[in-house]
Amino acid sequence: MTEAMMMEIGRNAFTMMMLLSLPLLGASLVVGLAVSLFQAVTQIQEVTLTFVPKILAVALTTALLGAWMFQRLAAFTVALFDLVARLGP
What we know:
Elements: H1 3-42, H2 51-87
């Protein structure tokens, strides 16, 4: 295995990590911003108010995009195992 191949695997792993985490982090960011805006407008400063909507948003996003995320991760894993098998003895 050459250094270029290892860099390619690392780059692909990093890209996959970003691709799979972006929808969850994006949903959490949007909901957190909306709740913060709501708290600023209504002057309700309850700390726990921010956690429940974020958890629900992440759970809903996972339910909606979970199959797609699993397919992408499974395809990446199969490709990685295929590469390891080709490099074997």
